Amino acid sequence: MAIIAGKELGEILDRGVVREMIDPEVQVQMCGVDLTLRSVERFVTAGAVDYDNKERVISKTEEVAFDDAGWAYLDAGCYLVTFNETVSIPKALTALARPRSSLLRSGATVETALWDPGYQGRSQSLLVVHNSKGLRLKRNARLIQLAFYRLSSLADKGYEGVYQNENL
Q1: Looking at the DSSP assignment, which residues form a beta bridge with residue 110?
Q2: Structural domains in the chain plus CATH codes
């Protein structure tokens, strides 16, 4: 499995795989696309995860406000982040993301799940601030680089989970 890069990446982006970018000239990299911060939420309740999702409970959250200059201060801990961009993954592709190095060098990371073939939505991920001094994030900050991979065979069906079309 190889990362889709360069001209081929441009071609899939031209087909609308990532939409609502703030500035493609800045966000499109050689091997992926930077996704940017739309909102941050802190967890306020426990979650529950089981085998078949019959007893799944997604943690409740509350929004962290940006100040008048567009900054949010985050203490060490875990946060739910929502990205500005929407994605629409074709059945022949999947995507994985990695945190940008500036985030890592500030003592924070973003944990992500696999973007399945057929998934569409405005994705969310887990931001973990490890730095005991906290982290300041500005609205629209570039947090992760989303990389695309071609599948060894076309998916029989696309993603059909509860997060399909989330935050649209």
Answers
A1: 127
A2: 6-45+57-150 (2.70.40.10)
Buried b (16+ CB within 10 A) or exposed e, 78-116: ebbbbbbbbbebbeebbbbbbbbeebeebebbbebeebb
Kindly report, residue by residue over 14-71, the tens digit of the pLDDT: 999 999 999 999 999 999 999 999 999 999 999 999 999 999 999 999 999 999 999 9
Q: Which residues pair with 126 in a beta bridge?
A: 80, 111
How far apart CA 15 and CA 49 sit, in angstroms, is 35
Query: How far apart (Å, rounded) are the C-alpha atoms in residues 129 and 131?
Result: 6
If you count them, how many residues does the chain have?
A: 168
Answer whether residue 156 shows pLDDT above 90: no
Max intra-chain CA distance, the chain: 49
pTM, rounded to two decimals: 0.93
Sort 76 into a burial class: Cβ within 10 Å, 0-12 / 13-18 / 19+: middle
CA 94 to chain centre: 13
Strand partners, 95: 115, 148
Alpha carbon separation from 62 to 106, 128, 154 (Å, rounded): 24, 16, 39
Banded pLDDT at 161 (limits 50, 70, 90): confident
- Report d(CA 99, CA 17) in Å as an integer: 20
Cβ atoms of 134 and 91 within 8 Å: the answer is no
